[in-house]
Amino acid sequence: MRRAHGRTATTRIALISAGTAAVLGLGGLSAGSAAAAGTPAPDRPSEPTATAPAAVGQQVLSTFTVAYPAAPYRTHNIARAVELINGAVVQPGDVWSFNQAVGERTEENGFVDGIMINDGRYVKSPGGGVSAVATTMYNAMFFAGLKPLEHGAHSFYIERYPEGREATVAWGTLDLRWQNDSGHPVTVRASSTSTSVTVTLLGTKQYDEIRATKGPRTHITPPAKHTVTGPTCEPQTPLEGFDVSVDRVFVQGGHEVGRETFRTHYTPRDEIVCAPESPSATPGATPSGTPATPSGSPGTPAAPAPAASAAPTTSTTPATPATPSASATPAAATAANASAASGTGTAPTP
Question: What pLDDT is recorded for position 122?
Answer without folding.
Answer: 82
